[in-house]
Every structure is written in structure tokens, then in C-alpha cells.
Amino acid sequence: MRRIISVLLENEPGALSRVVGLFSQRNYNIESLTVAPTEDETLSRLTVTTTGSDKVIEQITKQLNKLIEVVKLVDLTEGAHIERELMLVKLKATGSQRAEIKRTVDIFRGQIVDVTSSVYTVQLAGDSEKLDGFIQAIGTSGVLEVVRTGVSGIARGEKVLSL
Amino acid sequence: MELLSGADMLIRSLKDEGIEYIYGYPGGAALHIYDALFRQDEVKHILVRHEQAAVHMADGYARATGKPGTVLVTSGPGATNTITGIATAFMDSIPMVVLCGQVASTLIGEDAFQETDMMGVSRPVVKHNFSVRHPEEIPEIIRKAYYIAATGRPGPVVVDIPKDMTTPNERYEYSYPKKVKLRSYNPAIRGHAGQIKKAVDMLLAAKRPIIYAGGGVVLGKASDQLTELVRMLGYPITNTLMGIGCYPASDKQHLGWLGMHGTYEANMAMHHSDLILCVGARFDDRVTNATEKFCPGARIIHVDIDPASISKTIDADVPIVGPVDAVLKEMLSLVKESKEKPDADAIASWWKQIDEWRAFHGMRYETSPDVIKPQEVIEMLCRLTNGEAFVTSDVGQHQMFAAQYYKFDKPNRWINSGGLGTMGFGLPAAMGIKLTHPDDEVLCITGEGSIQMNIQELSTCKQYNLPVKIINLNNQALGMVKQWQDMNYESRHSQSYMESLPDFIKLAEAYGHVGVRIDKKEDLETKLKEVLAMKDKLVFVDIYVDRFEHVYPMQVARGAMKDMWLSKTERV
């Protein structure tokens, strides 16, 4: 099952490599990984999406917690949560394609953030499925380049992950 | 406040931490530190002949005393040579701090002479590692390193120290922190009361209970609590290879150790039990055999300081995270208070069954009128040392024989690389113990394969006068490899036979020690007595044992715990 694990990590050099190393050492999957400092400059927040049986996920969270620099973590998929990913995509856009692409971008509530005579660069945010859906709708033949941030997530409601 | 250089701060921090001995080997990046060592005499340094041995020495010391060991090496090859030792300590949860020199911070990343990314190289085999970025950080990092190494589930911690952090003419205010604050590291200090209560209720209601104890009991200094609980309940107990000595082996409730080469009765009792109380063990693959066939009728209570050890391979019905001594103490008082008592009839018939299993195999082996059997060497050593020696071992058949036939009644006396299975561990570990236990008998039981992996340490033994007794069970082959080849590869002995073995007697003599060869069965006892009487000499005893012996019992691969070979021809 796919899981989103959110981790508060000491903002120290090498801390990220411990997390990444743990996944490869113990043969766990990483589907995506995002990391950035938080409003508290001593902490980074890391979001990792992974897959595995309940037993594997339990081990992943336990092993992550064992890392000295992991301060706190939560499996967001255990409760209601919001997940978002940002995608920038360059599309071939000439002639009649230009209007068609614009319409599709609007349907997906994306934005065209850069334009040349033959290329649109589109920005799109949403859950991973929505981004997949957009690429499918456009058709891969028109796609020149894709960059995705990986998933960031947060719990719904009043639950917060903080010290 | 005192002004000290980084190197002086490091050595002073070790002293303030109460460190008496460090084991190591100098080199360029560590020279400021070695100079600081030279200018004081409170922290003593033991110069080994290979960095791997320094780590095993620190490890042997830590296993015998329960206190963290300390290693000091230089960058690059000095640091990488420690890795096997660190991995050994990591697998067996041994507290240790390894101080590594590093090239100057201005050179890091430039492929400088003797530069290795020790932070990266050591990362998968340490509990934690630190890199010093400012000399002022040194006291705090050292304090944290020992704190992390010795608390919770213990383990090795590496501190990487770039050379410019220890420059002699740059001085800083020194004070050693009294307290450690780590917001992200808070090991459990007691178990969950409700879970403990539930566990005690299950224990008292069990019909076929067994206690399965591991190295965590030794590390957690909980042997007394465990022994008291087991005696009060009157239940059978088995332990892992790492748990040897956590409960007296000579006691009738003790079934010996379990697993791949465990006793018939321990493995049978585990398989047929209805309740397993696992304390400080981790259901390792060398214990469980095939996990899907593991103890089908048993419910499991699992006590461990490390939550990640619980339900990792075998699901626990009642998980209890906490230090084993505290949890066992709470269990004891609950058992005492409880109106419920163990089911006397059920327990009596369980013991009747166990005694039948015990009588069935009883660790028998075939003796021969003229060939020396490795098992009888160990039995004799146990008798001649009253079962009170510190025994280290290397890895292979001799290790299993030593663990099977030497009866340990105390913890911290059986010292072996259980998790990683490191050949070359035995001699340096024995040295680390002898150094701090000069009046105790320290035996290194080894084989002619393993001993050659750190034989150079005979030189260190001479320098520091470490009169350990090396018992080389010489079968002229890599015995355990050969046994597997006999059993699984139709006796194709691929690379398991060593030609051109050295003359170990001359070798021992060349290093300034005594060598004794025993190849006649009738000489065994007299010569071993002579060897043990040479209190102030290191004696290398080269004993020619049966070349064809196998270790039994041996679990059948991919079977249940109860599936075992009992000899070359009997399978149950």
C-alpha cells in the first residue's frame, strides 16, 4: 500500500543521507522524497512516499524513529490528509495545438508560466494522480520535458506535526 | 576557564568521561591528538598492530565490563580498517566510541592524501556518527557520543575529527558538559504498565511456557532479575548464543541455548510451547529457522529496549518496549502479588516432556580412543577452569563447540561475534579483557583459519604483557565451511582446506611467547594443566583435533525449530 510519511528532521549536514541510506540499506522503496527547512531553522521537514505491507511500513517508521536526527514523524495516510505535488512541463505548442493546450490547462486549473512561439511551459499543482491525468490528457507526444517536486503532505483538521 | 587546544580538549574530555584505556594506531591526521596523549598519563593508549584489532579490543573490554570501549585511529586506511570491527559491535549492540582523524576541513572533498569519507563509509554500521566542525564542539560531541553509545540499545558511535580541529596553537575555553540534551533521542526508561500486567497474566495461565532470553539481558545487566523471575515461576529457560550466561547454565531449569546449533531440548520446547516470553532477543534467522513454521502454538510476549526489534521477523502478541531490568522487576513484583499461581499440574507434565527430550540427545558425541574430539577439549577446559574463565571465540565450528560445552554460570564471560560472525575477533577481544582483568583466566578458543586473521596481535600481547591462552582447535580446514560442503555440496571441499599452515609453535616463539602442541589424546589433560599453570605467559596451544567432526544438533534448513540433524545420520 502507498504511504506518505512526514518527518521532522534536525537541520544538520548528513541528516538527509541517513534517511536515504536507511531506505536502501533495508531494501525499502522510495517513490518520492521532498525536503526543505521549516519556519524553525533548526528543523527540516521531509516527506517520503513509499509502498509496502503493513509490516514493512511499521518497520520503516520504527527504523526512521531510531535515527538520532529524526525528531518526530507521522504516517499521514493513517488519517485524513492533503497531498500536493507541483509539476512544470514543457509542451510543444504550435498552430491549432496552442488553443487546445490552453483549454486543457484551464480544465486542470494549471497556469501557463512561460511562452515562446513554439513552446508553452505549464505549472500544475495537485495530487499525483491529477498530474498523471494531465500528462495523459495532453498525450506524451507533445511533452518535451517534465519536472515534478514529489509529494508534500499535511494532515487535515487541527492535527499538527511540530515539536 | 582553562584554554586548551582541540587535541587537548579531546583527551581531557575522555578523562572527564572516565575513560582509562584507548586502543589505536597513529597516523598523519591524528598526530596532534597523539601529541596531546603523550603529554599526559591518565588516559592510557594501547598500540595495536592493525586497526581492526583495536576495535575488537575495545569491544572485548566493553562486553566484559559493560562500559563503552574507545578507539583512536587516523584517517583513510586507519579509519576504513576499523569498519569490520565497528560492524561487529553494531550487530551485537556493543557500546563503543571510535575517534577517527580526518584530513583538514579545507581539504575535504579534494581527494587529499589519506582522505576517506568516514561519515559515509561508517553510516550503515553505526548507531550515530559526528563530524567535528568547530574545535569548541569537541567536549559536547564526546559527551553525546558516549551517551548515545551506552544508553538505549547500545552501539558504536564514530567521531570524525579533521586535523585542523586539533591544531595545537589554537586554544579555546574548556568545560565538560554535565548533562546531555538531545531532543530527538529519548530511550524508554520503563515498560508500559498495562502491557506488563497482561504479560504476567498470560505467563501465569500458560501450560507450556518457555523463557527465551538474549544478549539484551547481558547488556541490560538484568541477569539477577531474570534468574529470580525464572526460579519463582519454575519455568524452563533457553537463551541465544549472545545471551549465554544470563542464566546459570548449570541450573536444572536451563535448557541450553537454542537455534541452529542449539540443544535438542531447547528447540523442541520452543516448538511445542504455548507461550514464549522473549526478553532482549530479536528472533534472528539463526534462531527461528523458517519463520512461517516458527512455534505454531505459541503466543509471544516480547520485551526489548528497541521497538524496531519487536515484530520485525516474528509478530509479538504482547510487545513491551523498555529496559529489560526495569520490565523484569515489575513482572517480578506482579508475580509475587498475584493471587494466581502457575498451573502446577500442567507445568509438571511440561517438565516431564522436557526431561524426556533432554534424555534423548543430551549433547552426546562419539568419542574415540586415539583422536582428540574438539568437544572434549572444551569440556576439559571448562573443568580445569571451574567454568569461571572469560572465553572469547572466533567464528566457526570451534565457536559452536565452545558455546555448547563450556558451561557459563555468569554473564559477560562468553565473548563472541554472534551477529556479524567476524573471524579474527577472538584474540584482540581476549586482549581487551586481559588488560583490565589481569587476575582472571582469559581463553581465546579459536581455529587455525580464524586466528590467522589477526595473528599479528601476538606482538601487541608481548608489548603489554597480556598472558591470554590461545586454544587453537586445529582441524586443518575451515571446519564450518567444510561441514556445510559435506552436508549440502556432496563433500566438494571448495577452498575450505588450508595447505601450508604455519608452525604455530615457532610462530608463537618468534613473537616471544610459548607454544605447546598437543596431538595425542593421552597428553591432553596433562598438557592443558601445564598451560594453565603458566599464569604469566601467553601460551599458544595448537591442538590437533578430529578433522571430520561436525557440529550437532543442527537445524534442517528451511524447517521448523524442531527439525534437526542430531548426528551425521540421525534426523528428527
Automatic annotation (TrEMBL), chain A:
Highest taxon listed in the record's lineage: Bacteria
Record text on subunit structure and interactions: Dimer of large and small chains.
Job of this protein: Catalyzes the conversion of 2 pyruvate molecules into acetolactate in the first common step of the biosynthetic pathway of the branched-amino acids such as leucine, isoleucine, and valine.
Protein name, UniProt field: Acetolactate synthase small subunit
Any GO BP annotation: L-valine biosynthetic process
Gene Ontology terms for molecular function: acetolactate synthase activity; acetolactate synthase regulator activity
Keyword Membrane: no
EC code: 2.2.1.6
Pathway: Amino-acid biosynthesis; L-valine biosynthesis; L-valine from pyruvate: step 1/4; Amino-acid biosynthesis; L-isoleucine biosynthesis; L-isoleucine from 2-oxobutanoate: step 1/4
Catalytic activity reported: 2 pyruvate + H(+) = (2S)-2-acetolactate + CO2
Domain spans labelled ACT: 4-78
Keyword Ligase recorded: no
EC top class named in words: transferase
Similarity comment: family membership: Belongs to the acetolactate synthase small subunit family.
Species, as recorded: Marinobacter subterrani
Sorted UniProt keywords: Amino-acid biosynthesis, Branched-chain amino acid biosynthesis, Transferase
TrEMBL record, chain B:
Pathway: Amino-acid biosynthesis; L-valine biosynthesis; L-valine from pyruvate: step 1/4; Amino-acid biosynthesis; L-isoleucine biosynthesis; L-isoleucine from 2-oxobutanoate: step 1/4
Cofactor note: Binds 1 Mg(2+) ion per subunit.
All copies of domain Thiamine pyrophosphate enzyme central, residue ranges: 196-330
A Gene Ontology BP annotation from the UniProt entry: L-valine biosynthetic process
Every Thiamine pyrophosphate enzyme N-terminal TPP-binding domain range: 5-119
Catalytic activity: 2 pyruvate + H(+) = (2S)-2-acetolactate + CO2
EC number: 2.2.1.6
GO MF annotation list: acetolactate synthase activity; flavin adenine dinucleotide binding; magnesium ion binding; thiamine pyrophosphate binding
Cofactor: Mg(2+); thiamine diphosphate
Ranges where the Thiamine pyrophosphate enzyme TPP-binding domain occurs: 394-543
Cytoplasm among keywords: no
Domain of life according to the entry: Bacteria
Protein keywords: Amino-acid biosynthesis, Branched-chain amino acid biosynthesis, FAD, Flavoprotein, Magnesium, Metal-binding, Thiamine pyrophosphate, Transferase
Keyword Disulfide bond set for record: no
One term under GO cellular component: acetolactate synthase complex
Similarity comment: Belongs to the TPP enzyme family.
Protein name: Acetolactate synthase
